[in-house]
Amino acid sequence: MKKDFLTLSDLTREEAEHIFSLADRIKYKPSQFSRALRGRSFVLIFDKPSLRTRLSFELGIKQMGGEAVSFTANEILLGQREAIKDIARTVSVYVDGAIIRTFRQETAEEFAHYAKAFVVNALTDKFHPAQVLSDIYTIRSKKRGGKKLKIAFIGDGNNVCHSLVRAARLFKFKLFIACPPQYCPSSEIVSSASGYVEIFHDPKVVARNADILYTDVWTSMGKEKEKMRRLRDFKKFTLNDEIMKRAKKDCLIMHCLPAHRGEEISDAVIESRNSIVFEQAENRLYVQKALLYYLAQRAK
Ligand code: CP
Ligand code: NVA
User: Fold this and answer.
1) Which of the listed residues 221, 277, 280 should we mutate to test ligand 2's pocket, taking the one with most ligand atoms within 8 A of CB?
2) What separation in Å is there between the alpha carbon of 129 and the centre of ligand 1?
3) Which of 31, 62, 120, 244 has the largest CB neighbor count within 10 A?
4) pLDDT of 145 above 80
5) Ligand 1 midpoint to CA 218 (Å)
6) Measured from the CA of 53, which atom of ligand 2 is nearest?
7) Contact indicator for 185, 165 with CB cutoff of 8 Å
């Protein structure tokens, strides 16, 4: 039966661990998987801009012998030119899997409900699960310490933050979030991970003794009209040397990218030896290949 990946809650811990061990094999022995998706077809529907997500999914499919066709916003006009349910049923006639980046989580859910093809969330307003699944893989590959690691997210309680909250519950780690009071993550999502998440409003507090400091843009795609207000409201939340001083010396800096240097992160911090942002981007290729391979096997 098909299995969708719309949030991290769609995976059990065992499935996530299985995907990570597949990702290890794909990373270090890619040739073993060069035919893993042979005869499989995928559609990528991207309603918002993307570099990493689209490139890594599309290349990943091709590297495993599958076919991929991509559409951007104006080509499909999701829900405008025709109903989402009609698009979902139509693409299912042609493809095994659909990878969707769109504005509302509900759109991805409606699409998945009507699609026979399995559906992967490539970012919505609420979640960015493919990003964070791969980020946990990256953290695991860099740090020992499991549950005891102190992971802190500084910035907007946005889609990436929500997926980190879901990850805290799935992988049982403590997540410390620092955000301005009016930009907290959804209380419903936070309470679904109760005991694993703590919210603060001072970045210096969460940075104290942190092993990982993670940040993301203050103005997510779709919120551009709020940009000026957000620049003011987040002024004290720039991940800079001042905040780094509070963290452990070997604290790793993560950012899903794209970064707005000088806003949520200083140039010096993103360029520092502690920064692993490009390794983070690289691992998306392996983890997403593993994810698609797993979901395609399940849908057989
Ligand atoms: N991190 C990430 O999803 O990047 P893109 O928006 O470029 O895909
Ligand atoms: N929170 C950001 C993530 C970009 C990958 C956004 O939604 O724009």
Assistant:
1) 221
2) 12
3) 120
4) no
5) 15
6) 5
7) yes
Q: Is 131 in the pocket of ligand 1 (CB under 6 A)?
A: yes
Pairing of strands 67-72, 41-46: parallel
Residues in contact with ligand 2 by the CB-under-6-Å rule are 123, 128, 158-160, 216-217, 220-221, 256
Question: Domain 131-280's class?
Answer: alpha beta
Residue 34's contacts (CB-CB under 8 Å, 6 or more residues apart) are 63, 64, 65
8-128+284-298 and 131-280: same fold? yes
pLDDT tens digits, one per residue of 16-57:
999 999 999 999 999 999 999 999 999 999 999 999 999 999
pLDDT confidence bin for 155, thresholds 50/70/90: very high
Domain boundaries, the chain: 8-128+284-298, 131-280
Give 92: exposed, middle or buried? Use CB within 10 Å, 0-12, 13-18, 19+: buried
pLDDT of residue 73: 82
Measure 221 CA to ligand 2 centroid, in angstroms: 6
CATH value of 8-128+284-298 in 3.40.50.2300, 3.40.50.1820, 3.40.50.1370, 3.30.70.360: 3.40.50.1370
